[in-house]
Amino acid sequence: MSVALFLSVFLIAACGLIYELIAGTLASYLLGDSVLQFSTIIGSYLFAMGIGSWLSRFLDRALVARFVAIELMVGLVGGFSSALLFLGFAYGHAFRFELYTVVIAIGILVGLEIPLLMRILKDRFQFRDLVSHVLTFDYLGALGASLLFPLILVPKLGLVRSAMLFGIVNAVVALWSTFLFSSQLVRTVSLRLASAAVLIALGCGMAFAKYITVAAENNIYADEVIFARDTHYQRIVLTKWKDDIRLFLSSHLQFSSRDEYRYHEALVHPGLAAVPGARRVLVLGGGDGLAVREILKYPSVQSITLVDLDPEMTRLFSTHPLLTPLNGGSLKNPRVKVINADAFVWLQQDSGLFYDFAVVDFPDPTNYSLGKLYTTTFYRLLARHLTPHALMAVQSTSPLFARQTYWCIVETLKQAGLEVYPYHAYVPAFGEWGFVLAGTEPYRPPTKLPPGLRFLTPRTLPELFEFPSDMTPVPAEPNRLNDQVLVRYYDQEWSVITH
User: Fold this and answer.
1) Predicted local confidence at residue 33, as pLDDT
2) Do the Cβ atoms of 360 and 244 come closer than 8 Å?
């Protein structure tokens, strides 16, 4: 009996933390700025748990029946929380209100659980043993959930199914409790029927989870969703309309197949063509292999090292029949070595080759995890891996729509001790887009480019380095590891555009 009781504590603790993690992850996918989303959601959730614990003092009769009812409500609300929030974002106009309403509702219910269970068990154990055992299993449940969530649940089940699975766990605990405490229940049959009904509802939700996600994403994205997957690091979505394939990472557009050549030619060739005889090239990010495709146009390049965090990205763009034609099978080229690692950590640990050219092709700095890859620390670290005549090319968001963000990146490279050469190109899917070349020696635009380019020519290339008055420099602080002003600039400027 004791083992079963404390196993219940373990399970309900795990469920409570899973719902909190799902809400935070989903909000960071859809709203960006993961630190803000997780901080406010954790704070709201703990506050709501405090309310629930306080409210538990007013429940003084039929405690077991009330505990079972609360478990069923947690299972229903928590289990369907991810689906409701996805649909609310896709079809509603008050997502933040819906998000925090759901978080607070779950928090209040979860806050009721442990105080009620401790009052139910107070006659079976001495108080000190009861408290120590309940809290021990509560914390163990939280630990188990925190490990299970990123390693198994998100990559294997996704957010919608993960929430429903743990809703089922809550409902099972409710049903189980009707047997453990049957002597203290009056309406045992009705509670078991209610538990069965919740289990059936959540089971159906599990079975139709894919259709719920597809319905939401088909409304979020303008075109048909042809691929969607949660990985350890992000949500990957591919859409297709006629011959246009688009990649979204955590809801942010990464490329459109109709015009990505403009972006990738501008990213690679102004720098690489200016390093005669470059042999070794480093690509950080760029797991789609499109920058690598452009680099492979240089016969002198003997090796390309691609470092991308997400193995699912590089696997997808190495094998998917719609995607490998886009990058020309570049990730399977014998000159290319793919490493799945955090670029920041990899640069700190790698003491091997020096590179003649580096491409820094990370997603925009929407959160602090990405923002660290745009810091003075990161750029100094990268510079130590380059040969004396090398250049690095950094994608740097839009100098038109996020002007201060762009010039912050330029200033950060300057503060890292590098000579900087800002430039921009028009990419229809994005608008005006910015890049920066950086190195330790003066830069001269190349007079010769590889054959077969669709956008750049030796004549038009110098024009990229000219900025009209609405994109000229504005004051900006450098982005440092201990003070990531870049993420704040980015959030302020792009939120104006998106809202």
Assistant:
1) 63
2) no
Find the DSSP H helices in 336-484: 343-349, 368-371, 376-383, 403-415
Which of 53-57, 229-233, 341-345 is the least confident region?
A: 229-233
Return the CATH fold of 259-498: Rossmann fold (3.40.50)
pLDDT in tens, 21-39: 999 888 887 776 667 788 8
Give pLDDT tens digits for 178-192.
988 888 888 889 999
pTM score, two decimals? Answer: 0.78
Given a cut of 70, whether residue 3 has pLDDT beyond it is no
Q: What is the layout of strands, in order, in the sheet containing 224-230? A: 224-230, 235-241, 244-249, 252-256
Burial-class residue 339 by CB neighbours within 10 Å (0-12, 13-18, 19+): middle
Q: Which strand (E) or helix (H) includes residue 231?
A: none
Residues 6+ apart with CB under 8 A from 189: none
- Cite the active site residues: 361
Determine the Cα–Cα distance for residues 162 and 86; give it in Å rounded to an integer: 14
Give CATH 1.20.1250 domain extents, the chain.
2-217
Please state, in angstroms and rounded to a whole number, the distance separating the CA atoms of residues 32 and 345.
23
Place of tokens 């799902």: 22
Write out the DSSP string of 310-353. -HHHHHHHHH-TTTHHHHTTGGGSTTEEEEES-HHHHHHH--S-
User: pLDDT, tens digit, for every residue of 218-236?
Assistant: 777 878 888 888 888 888 9
Place of tokens 């090796």: 303
**Residues contacting 167, CB < 8 A, separation 6+:** 15, 74, 75, 76, 78, 79, 80, 198, 202, 205
Find the mean pLDDT for residues 403-430: 96
Please state which CATH number belongs to domain 2-217.
1.20.1250
Tell me how far apart the alpha carbons of residues 195 and 183 are, in angstroms, rounded to a whole number. Answer: 18
Q: Bridge-partner residues for 277, per DSSP?
A: none
DSSP string covering 238-266: EEEETTEEEEEETTEEEEETTTHHHHHHH
Amino acid making up residue 200: I
Contact 370, 394 (CB under 8 A): no
What tokens appear for 344 in the block?
């920041």
Stretch(es) of the chain classified as CATH 3.40.50.150? 259-498
Distance from C-alpha of 58 to C-alpha of 2, rounded to nearest angstrom? 27
